[in-house]
């Protein structure tokens, strides 16, 4: 494990631990539990804080049923406590303002009411978000170009991104995603990273489900950061078994367009994917025909020449209002953005989930892009 990953893990545990202890102290102040009950509650909170780490440990020892159980409990709780923190802080600010306006208001009553309202609303949001995370949307885009395209001048590109096949999303959970892709009838199918997540055994049977999907002019994929976290060799094998032509700073020509596939920055930082100067040079040159760039994280490389960049990574925030924090690092977190003349960026909300199998105001999607060009 690299130094940056250790620092990230420690930072995450510190912040996530703080949110959990905030819940613990709020609950204690309202429920007034002491003694043995308080000790048990504290132990439970500590176990929930380190649940993401316990999942990876169980995976590394090939204890998949245990890992799945911990993941389901730990990640659902993660969504709940995140919503509770946001709602509770917001309501406490309102309570403080109300106290300033009406000093006679009962502090204890308002404090108890804000706690229980936060609990109830958090529970409702988790249930809603869990259900909504399984309802795949199909986002349709029509992009016109002056470039010549095969046959009738129309080319359908279907994008999936951030599926995160792993401890939670696998087997029957993949069915809605695969059915939506099949019904879209892609000419070209692309995966813009994080197809895989986790170190599971027996994962190749899920790859065969993707392999069954046909695309007339081919299936292309790039790596995301989670493919490196899951193990590069395993990720490469899974992506290829899923029937994708994996582009790691590579170029392909299909259906009259040029497809660039850029490796994720995680690989560069770890030394597993040194940047190819030939790829960088080719991407900066002008090309005849439509140029499609596949890149997991929605960074825009200065000097890159493309007509459409497809990215993911942000999940559209996944859990409102987490998207507001994501915007600090990625000002563009979802949707179609015009970067210049004949130069577009589309960022998918993602098809699966990371961590909590919950989405609130950021529903999952596959993207159907119809290129309309000259015959």
Structural key phrases:
2 domains, 12 strands, six-stranded mixed β-sheet, alpha/beta, 375 residues, Purple Acid Phosphatase, chain A, domain 2, 12 helices
What is the radius of gyration computed over CA atoms, rounded to a whole number of angstroms?
23 Å
The stretches of 5 or more residues where confidence is low (pLDDT under 50) are: none
Quote the distance from N terminus to C terminus. 52 Å
**What structural category arises from helix and sheet content?**
alpha/beta
Mean pLDDT figure: 91
Strand content: 15-25%
Short characterization:
The chain has helices at residues 3-31, 35-49, 51-60, 64-101, 107-133, 175-184, 204-211, 225-230, 232-241, 265-270, 277-284, 322-329, and strands at residues 137-148, 154-160, 188-192, 219-222, 245-246, 250-254, 257-262, 291-295, 308-311, 335-340, 343-347, 365-374.
Describe the protein.
With about 375 residues, this protein is an alpha/beta fold. It folds into 2 domains: about 5-130, no CATH class; about 135-375, Purple Acid Phosphatase, chain A, domain 2, CATH 3.60.21.10. Helices cover about 45% and strands about 20% of the residues. It is built from 12 helices and 12 strands. The protein has a 6-stranded mixed beta sheet with strand order 1-12-2-3-4-5. The protein has a 6-stranded mixed beta sheet with strand order 6-7-8-9-11-10, with no helix packed on it. β6 (about 250-255) and β7 (about 255-260) form a beta hairpin. α1 runs antiparallel to α2 (about 35-50), α1 (about 5-30) crosses α4 and α4 (about 65-100) packs antiparallel against α5 (about 105-135). The longest helix has about 40 residues, at about 65-100. It is elongated and about 75 Å long. The relative contact order is 0.14. The model has no long low-confidence stretch (mean pLDDT about 90).
């Amino acid at each position: 494990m690299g130094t940056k990953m250790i620092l990230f893990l420690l930072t995450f545990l510190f912040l996530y631990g703080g949110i959990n202890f905030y819940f613990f102290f709020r609950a204690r102040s309202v429920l007034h539990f002491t003694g043995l009950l308080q000790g048990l509650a504290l132990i439970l909170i500590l176990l929930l804080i380190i649940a993401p780490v316990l999942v990876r440990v169980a995976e590394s020892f090939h204890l998949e049923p245990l890992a799945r159980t911990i993941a389901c409990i730990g990640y659902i709780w993660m969504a709940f406590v995140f919503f509770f923190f946001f709602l509770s802080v917001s309501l406490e600010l309102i309570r403080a303002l109300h106290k300033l306006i009406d000093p006679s208001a009962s502090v204890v009553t308002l404090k108890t009411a804000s706690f229980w309202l936060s609990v109830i609303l958090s529970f409702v949001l988790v249930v809603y978000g869990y259900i909504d995370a399984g309802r795949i949307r199909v986002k349709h885009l029509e992009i016109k170009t002056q470039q010549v395209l095969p046959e009738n001048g129309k080319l359908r590109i279907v994008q999936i991104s951030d599926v995160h096949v792993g401890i939670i999303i696998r087997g029957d959970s993949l069915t809605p995603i695969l059915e939506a892709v099949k019904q879209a009838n892609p000419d070209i199918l692309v995966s813009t990273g994080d197809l895989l997540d986790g170190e599971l055994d027996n994962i190749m049977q899920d790859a065969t489900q993707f392999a069954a999907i046909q695309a007339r002019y081919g299936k292309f994929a790039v790596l995301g950061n989670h493919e490196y976290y899951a193990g590069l060799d395993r990720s490469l094998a899974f992506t290829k078994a899923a029937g994708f032509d994996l582009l790691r700073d590579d170029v392909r020509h299909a259906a009259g367009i040029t497809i660039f596939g850029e490796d994720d920055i995680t690989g560069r930082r770890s030394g597993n994917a040194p940047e190819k100067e030939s790829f960088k040079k080719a991407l900066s040159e002008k090309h005849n025909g439509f140029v499609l760039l596949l890149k997991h994280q929605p960074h825009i490389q200065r000097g890159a020449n493309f007509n459409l960049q497809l990215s993911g990574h942000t999940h559209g925030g996944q859990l409102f209002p987490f998207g507001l924090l994501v915007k600090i690092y990625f000002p563009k977190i979802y949707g179609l953005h015009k970067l210049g003349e004949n130069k577009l960026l589309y960022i998918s909300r993602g098809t699966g989930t990371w961590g909590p199998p919950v989405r609130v105001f950021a529903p999952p999607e596959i993207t159907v892009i119809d290129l309309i060009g000259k015959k």
